[in-house]
Design a protein that fits this description.
The chain is built from four helices and 24 strands. By secondary structure, the protein is of the alpha+beta class. A six-stranded mixed sheet has the order 1-24-20-19-23-2. α2 packs antiparallel against α3. 15% of the residues are buried.
Length: 418
């Protein structure tokens, strides 16, 4: 007899099917849930830096290094070449203007001086001989002029007398004509004598002038030669300290070769190296400051050397404004803050490693309860070694994480744990 078999409502196959579908649904739902929300990361507050946004004075500046140099430096070069015969002082000596430093010898130069002295003496002797001859020649011409004057006067007396006698019919025409001819001859002779004497005066004067000019030129050359020989003794051009002396007895120095330098004792300047991409922003009048012996001092740019070196830097000279630090020495290195702008009031964010990952476009802002930090868009303007200038995105009193974000990846929210 057949029996009715009761069908099972929850078979094993059905249960497994339901379980599989449920698992898939849960997996998809969980995925959607976790991906649709914000990604979070727990961080230890002791491993991060939390800073407060403040409003304060901001000035854009760059840190640079400067070397202290004398305000005035005179380079000593050999004006004339020669052999070092004697050193009067050593490196580091403090000198007055005109003090001798060293003496060079130059046989050729000294021989040229002797030859020039001889030439000048010969010219002077020749001038004296020429002057004596000119004077003698002039005296001769003056004597001739005296004879001509006397002959003219006698011819004039005879002519006047014969003219009266001829008018009175006391003498004949031939005698009268002879007296007239003699008188006219003496007149012409006088004119010629005057012309010759005048030409002699002009010629003598021109010759004397030419001789004087020649003598003056040779004497000037002699004085120049004396100066050149005198330059073999190197002297201090100003008051100052002798440094970088490079000359030893017996050493030969060529004309123009460097011998050392003289540093004026009247003050100091600071030579600063600046990176080339700041060239367009650096000009005379910009100021800087530095700390020396726990006291702040100010500097101002006086000269900009616009040529860029192979190192990618250019140099500027700065001078002290007001007080010069006591005890400062040549060659000291100073760490200077060179201002690129005037001081203004701005919203400030302390500098930190976050900028490397965000580029200044966003930052983690700490919530008011201090338990979390979340991404906030910001805009950063200028910066210096201490702070960034915040243009928008935060307000005074906000707290932000300024340490590095290197390990945060795409995390949207940080959970702060103490």
């Amino acid at each position: 007899m057949d029996r009715v078999i009761e069908k099972k409502t929850w078979s094993t196959k059905r249960l497994m099917t339901i379980a599989g579908i449920t698992g898939v649904v849960l997996l998809v739902g969980g995925s959607i849930f976790f991906t649709s929300g914000k990604s979070k990361l727990n961080v230890d507050t002791e491993r991060i830096t939390i800073s407060e946004v403040k409003k304060g004075a901001f000035q854009e500046f760059i840190p640079v290094n400067g070397v202290v140099l004398p305000l005035t430096t005179i380079y000593l070069d050999a004006i004339e070449g020669g052999r070092v015969e004697e050193k009067y002082v050593e490196d580091g000596a403090v000198l007055k203007k005109g003090d001798p430093i060293l003496r060079l010898s130059n046989t050729d130069l000294e021989l040229s001086l002797a030859n020039q002295q001889t030439a000048v003496f010969n010219v002077l002797t020749q001038m004296q001989i020429s002057r004596d001859q000119a004077q003698q020649n002039t005296i001769t011409k003056l004597n001739s002029m005296a004879d001509v004057d006397n002959a003219l006067k006698e011819a004039e007396r005879v002519y006047n007398l014969d003219k009266k006698l001829y008018d009175q019919k006391a003498i004949g025409l031939q005698e009268y004509q002879s007296a007239l001819n003699l008188y006219n001859y003496q007149v012409r002779r006088k004119r010629l004598a005057v012309q010759i004497l005048k030409q002699d005066t002009v010629s003598t004067g021109a010759q004397a002038k030419q001789s004087a000019e020649s003598y003056a030129n040779m004497k000037g050359t002699l004085e120049l030669m004396k100066k050149k020989v005198g330059d073999l003794i190197v002297r201090a051009p100003i008051d100052g300290q002798l440094t970088s002396m490079d000359a030893e007895i017996g050493q030969s120095k060529n004309k123009g070769e460097h011998l050392g330098q003289l540093d004026a004792q009247g003050g100091f300047k600071v030579r600063v190296d600046v990176e080339e991409h700041y060239l367009s922003r650096i000009y005379t009048g910009l100021k800087g400051d530095f700390t020396f012996a726990e006291k702040n001092y100010k500097l101002v740019i006086k000269k900009v050397y616009t040529s860029v070196e192979k190192t990618g830097r250019f140099t500027v000279d700065m001078e002290f404004v007001g007080e010069v630090p006591k005890g400062i020495r040549k060659g000291q290195t100073l760490q200077i803050r060179l201002a690129l702008s005037d001081e203004t009031t701005a919203l400030l964010v302390p500098k930190g490693g976050f900028y490397q990952q965000t580029g200044g476009n966003w930052i983690f802002k700490v919530s008011e309860d201090g338990k979390t930090a979340y991404k906030t868009d910001i805009q950063i303007g200028r910066f210096n070694t201490d702070n960034y200038e915040l243009l928008q995105g935060l307000k005074p009193g906000d707290k932000v994480i300024t340490s590095s974000y290197e390990n945060y990846g795409d995390i949207q929210e940080l959970v702060l744990k103490k």
